[in-house]
Amino acid sequence: MLSQAFKALIFLPAALRVACAQTTACNNSPSLCSRAYNNITHLGAHDSPFVRDAADDYDIAGNQYYNSTVQLSAGVRLLSAQIQMTNSTSSGQLHVCHTSCDLFDAGKLSDWLSEVNVWLVANPDEVVTVLLVNGADATAQDLAAEYEAAGISDIVYTPTSTAASSASTTSSYAASATSTSSSTSEWPTLQSMISNGTRMVNFVASLSNNTGASYLLDEFSYIFENSYENTAPTDFSCAANRPSSVANDTELALNQGLMPLMNHFLDEQVGFGIQAPNDTYIATTNGPSGGVGNLGASADECTSSYGKAPTFILVDFFNVGPAIQTVDRLNGVSDVIGRTNISTSVMSATSGAPATGIQSGMLCLTLLAVMVLVVYW
Ligand SMILES: *[C@@H]1O[C@H](CO)[C@@H](O)[C@H](O)[C@H]1NC(C)=O
Ligand SMILES: *[C@@H]1O[C@H](CO)[C@@H](O)[C@H](O)[C@H]1NC(C)=O
Ligand SMILES: *[C@@H]1O[C@H](CO)[C@@H](O)[C@H](O)[C@H]1NC(C)=O
Ligand SMILES: *[C@@H]1O[C@H](CO)[C@@H](O)[C@H](O)[C@H]1NC(C)=O
Ligand SMILES: *[C@@H]1O[C@H](CO)[C@@H](O)[C@H](O)[C@H]1NC(C)=O
Ligand SMILES: *[C@@H]1O[C@H](CO)[C@@H](O)[C@H](O)[C@H]1NC(C)=O
Ligand SMILES: *[C@@H]1O[C@H](CO)[C@@H](O)[C@H](O)[C@H]1NC(C)=O
Ligand SMILES: *[C@@H]1O[C@H](CO)[C@@H](O)[C@H](O)[C@H]1NC(C)=O
C-alpha cells in the first residue's frame, strides 16, 4: 500500500511532464516545439493585408479572402505585405498598399502591425514571421517608428551575434560572407523562441542597414526565393531567382545557408499589361494534388531539389486548397491543436455579394490603366 503510493509519487513528475508536453503546442503542433525555426515549413499569406471581400466589392487587387487575424488563426505563420508611401500634399505616411496607395490602400503600416501584435499577444505559443516588401525605400528608423507606434517591442526576435559568427566560420558560407554578412544559418527551436518571448521574426526586402533596429532583417541576407512572376501553371520553378547573386544557382543559395521561400501563386492578365491574382485556377494552384501546377506536387519537386522542404511557402487565397494541408504534410503534422477551421471556398461578387462588385472591378481596372504599370509582387 505504502510502497504503491510511493511509486505513484515517484512517477508523478514524469507523468505530469508527459501530460504537459502533450498539451503544449508550438505553431499548432506539439511535434514542432523541438524543431528549429528554419527546419519547419511556414505557410505564408502573400500580400496578407490585401483582402478581396464584400467590404471592397471583391476588389481584383486583393490576394486573400480573409484578413491577417483570420489567416493567423487558421494556421498561416508568415505574412507578407508591401509598404508604400501615401501621396498626400502634406507629408506622406507609411501604409500597406498594393503597388500604389491610389490603387489599394489597406491602411497605416502601424495599424496592420498592431493587428499582428494583438494576435501574437493572445497566442503566446506561436512564432510568426512578417515579410515587408519595402516599396517605400523606408529606412530602419522609419520602420522602427511604425513598430513602436504598433506597441511592438520585446516580442521581436534578433539573431544572436554568436550564431551569426559561427555560421560565417563554415567554409561554404565564408565564400560569400560579404553579401550575407549579417545572416545566420543557425536558428533556435520554436520552443526556445517561445520561452524567451521573442516570437516575431521580421524580414524586409530590402534594407541597406538596420542601425538602431537590429530585429529588422534584410530578407535576402537570410532567404532566397524562386521566381514569382508566373502566369501559367507550367511556369512554376524551384530554381533560385532572388537575390540576384544566387540567380539560377540554387546550390550556392543553399550553401550560403539561405532559407528557401517558395512562391506559389499565379497572376492573370486583366488588360493594359496589368496583372491580378488568378482566382479561377486557385483550387488547383493551392491543391494538395491534382492538376498541373498543384501545390503538393510543386512542394515535392522543390523538396527534392533543395534536399529539404522549403522553409516558407507563399500563396494567394491561402484558405483554398487548403494550402495548409500540404504544409502539414511537409511538417509531418497530424496532431493539430488550436487552429480555426475556415471555408476552403473561392469567393467572388457572384458567389458572395450583389453585382456592385463588378462595377467596382471595372472602376479599379480603369484606375489601374492610367497608373503604374510596374506590378510589385
Ligand atoms: C527538417 O529536417 C528534416 C530532417 O533532416 C528534413 O527531412 C525536412 O525536410 C526539414 N524541413 C525543413 C523545412 O527544413
Ligand atoms: C478580421 O475578420 C474577422 C472576420 O470577418 C472579423 O471578425 C475581425 O474583426 C477582423 N479583424 C480585423 C482586425 O479587421
Ligand atoms: C502626388 O500627387 C501630386 C499632386 O496630385 C502629383 O503631381 C504627383 O505626381 C503625385 N506623385 C506620385 C508619386 O504619385
Ligand atoms: C534567450 O535569451 C537568452 C538571454 O538573453 C539568450 O542568451 C538566448 O540566446 C536566447 N535564445 C533565443 C532562442 O532567443
Ligand atoms: C544606414 O541607413 C541610414 C538611412 O539610409 C543612413 O543614414 C546611415 O548612414 C546608414 N548607416 C550605415 C552605417 O550605413
Ligand atoms: C536563369 O535561367 C532562365 C532559364 O534558363 C533564364 O531565362 C534566365 O535568364 C536565367 N537568369 C539568370 C540571371 O541567369
Ligand atoms: C487562370 O489560370 C488558368 C490556368 O492557366 C487559365 O486557364 C485561366 O484562364 C486563368 N484565369 C484568367 C482569368 O486568366
Ligand atoms: C473543417 O471543415 C470542413 C468543411 O466544413 C470539414 O469537412 C472538416 O472536417 C473540418 N475539419 C476539422 C478538423 O474540423
Automatic annotation (TrEMBL):
<keyword id="KW-0812">Transmembrane</keyword>
<dbReference type="Pfam" id="PF26146">
    <property type="entry name" value="PI-PLC_X"/>
</dbReference>
<keyword id="KW-1133">Transmembrane helix</keyword>
<keyword id="KW-0732">Signal</keyword>
<dbReference type="GO" id="GO:0006629">
    <property type="term" value="P:lipid metabolic process"/>
</dbReference>
<feature type="signal peptide">
    <location>
        <begin position="1"/>
        <end position="21"/>
    </location>
</feature>
<feature type="transmembrane region" description="Helical">
    <location>
        <begin position="357"/>
        <end position="376"/>
    </location>
</feature>
<protein>
    <recommendedName>
        <fullName>PLC-like phosphodiesterase</fullName>
    </recommendedName>
</protein>
<dbReference type="GO" id="GO:0008081">
    <property type="term" value="F:phosphoric diester hydrolase activity"/>
</dbReference>
<dbReference type="InterPro" id="IPR017946">
    <property type="entry name" value="PLC-like_Pdiesterase_TIM-brl"/>
</dbReference>
<keyword id="KW-0472">Membrane</keyword>
<dbReference type="InterPro" id="IPR051057">
    <property type="entry name" value="PI-PLC_domain"/>
</dbReference>
